[in-house]
């Protein structure tokens, strides 16, 4: 089994790091302070092939593998988890169902501009009363001739306030649970579709998150993804699984940022006449952080490689997500402790990593749900 990055992956990592440090890092302070995503990044990332990095180059993607996508996730999250979150939706759930199952017309009208960053996408599954139990969504899709009428509300939708379109999960018949759910493309100016609220969040502030309302929103039946009703869950299953592996990279990126900030602070901060990094307890904390980050990164690459080789990794994807998101919490807690009182002040970046990383045990499947997946996939 190979443990090192290939030459191509290593070069991609260097190029991505140069890009994020030069073009993303300078945007973070303002984006976070104003809770506004720097919109030009969509097109810029699209031009570079980073926005939808695993799609073929012929359609504007980066033609890269899963390992490289995890590297991209790590490097972006090392700089800013909020900005990363908004961008990662685009390469994942906002486009993948169309890429894999959409009609040629949807591909040309929605997917191609989305891959280039000309159209911003969102993915809307979660509802005010339905989160983890996603098969119980209440948003209805009612067939009316050659149209569907969507009726319902969605919440916590990343990119909701800035999207040009949303891929919306709705049920044809709630009693069918997962088998009643289809995905529909709803464009921004469709009558009946409104962003009712932009949500004020604790962290990941530069990713704009909102509530969406579908009030008898009438869309052409051809906006349904796939040609049969009730296939929505199947259509997102593999993308959700793939996203969990990417979460390993996302968690590693925030952990790496917290580690670097803590090491710097440990060298700068002097107490009892010497830098606190010279106290053995601080060195132990930093050593633990470095070790855990190495395990997070290696494990992410391992599962990403298995995925690239075509193995079924439903269990491993949940393990990566669970392990990395939970280990990140330990790292962030230690990083805050090393920073003492200054860690609690807004002027040091560690508080942002702590606020941002706290989300990671909740989104794209809570830690509890991933325990359940691992148990089910392990046969108990
Ligand atoms: C910032 C942010 C961005 C998001 N972006 C999107 C997006 O773009 N699109 C989208 O559709 N959704 C999005 N979400 C929603 C996210 O996926 C959900 O928050 C997540 O699925 C959990 O759902 P919930 O918050 O309703 O929690 P709940 O499902 O209500 O869970 C509450 C608690 O109960 C636990 N729990 C629930 N069921 C079980 C069980 N069976 N066994 C044990 N414990 C259980 C959970 O683990 C959790 O600890 C986002 C959320 C946030 C906060």
Q: Name the CATH superfamily assignment of the largest domain.
A: Butyryl-CoA Dehydrogenase, subunit A, domain 3
Q: Domains counted in the coordinates: how many?
A: 3
- Helix fraction? 40-55%
User: Which CATH architecture of the largest domain?
Assistant: Up-down Bundle
**CATH fold descriptor of the largest domain:** Butyryl-CoA Dehydrogenase, subunit A, domain 3
Identify the bound ligands.
flavin-adenine dinucleotide
Would you kindly provide a brief summary of this structure?
The chain is α+β, with helices and mostly antiparallel strands. The protein has helices spanning 7-24, 28-34, 40-48, 66-79, 81-91, 96-101, 104-116, 232-268, 280-308, 314-338, 350-358, 367-377, and strands at residues 121-124, 140-144, 147-158, 165-171, 181-187, 193-198, 209-220, 270-271, 274-275.
Layout of strands and helices, then pairs:
Elements: H1 7-24, H2 28-34, H3 40-48, H4 66-79, H5 81-91, H6 96-101, H7 104-116, E1 121-124, E2 140-144, E3 147-158, E4 165-171, E5 181-187, E6 193-198, E7 209-220, H8 232-268, E8 270-271, E9 274-275, H9 280-308, H10 314-338, H11 350-358, H12 367-377
Parallel strand pairs: 1-4
Antiparallel strand pairs: 2-3, 3-7, 4-5, 6-7, 8-9
The site of flavin-adenine dinucleotide has 19 residues, from strand 1, strand 3 and helix 12.
């Amino acid at each position: 089994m190979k443990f090192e990055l290939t030459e191509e992956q290593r070069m991609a990592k260097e190029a991505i790091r140069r890009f994020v440090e030069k073009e993303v890092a300078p945007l973070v302070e303002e984006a976070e302070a104003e809770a506004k995503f720097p919109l030009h990044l969509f097109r810029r990332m699209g031009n570079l092939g980073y926005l939808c990095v695993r799609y073929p180059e012929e359609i504007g993607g980066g033609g890269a593998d899963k390992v490289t996508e995890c590297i991209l996730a790590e490097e972006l999250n090392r700089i800013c988890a909020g900005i990363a979150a908004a961008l990662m939706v685009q390469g994942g759930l906002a486009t993948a169902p169309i890429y894999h199952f959409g009609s040629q017309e949807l591909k040309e009208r929605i997917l191609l501009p989305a891959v280039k960053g000309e159209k911003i996408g969102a993915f809307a599954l979660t509802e005010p009363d339905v989160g983890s139990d996603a098969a119980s969504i209440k948003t209805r899709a009612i067939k009316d001739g050659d149209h569907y009428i969507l009726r319902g509300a969605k919440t916590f939708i990343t990119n909701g306030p800035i999207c040009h379109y949303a891929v919306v999960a709705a049920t044809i018949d709630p009693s069918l649970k997962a088998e009643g759910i289809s995905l529909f493309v709803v464009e921004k100016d469709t009558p009946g579709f409104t962003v009712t609220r932009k949500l004020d969040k604790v962290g990941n502030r530069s990713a704009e998150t909102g509530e969406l309302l579908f009030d008898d929103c009438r869309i052409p039946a051809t906006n349904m993804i796939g040609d049969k009703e009730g296939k929505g869950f199947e259509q997102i299953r593999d993308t959700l699984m793939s996203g969990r592996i990417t979460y390993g990279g996302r968690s590693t990126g925030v952990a790496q940022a917290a580690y670097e900030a803590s090491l710097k602070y440990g060298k700068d901060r002097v107490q009892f006449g010497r830098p606190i990094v010279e106290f053995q307890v601080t060195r132990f904390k930093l050593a633990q952080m470095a070790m855990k980050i190495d395990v997070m990164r290696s494990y992410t690459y391992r599962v990403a490689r298995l995925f690239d080789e075509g193995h079924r990794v439903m269990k491993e994807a949940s393990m990566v997500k669970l392990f990395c998101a939970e280990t990140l919490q330990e790292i962030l807690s230690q990083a805050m402790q090393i920073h003492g009182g200054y860690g609690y002040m807004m002027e040091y970046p560690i508080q942002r990593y702590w606020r941002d990383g706290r989300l990671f045990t909740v989104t794209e499947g809570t830690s509890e749900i991933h325990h359940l997946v691992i148990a089910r996939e392990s046969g108990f």
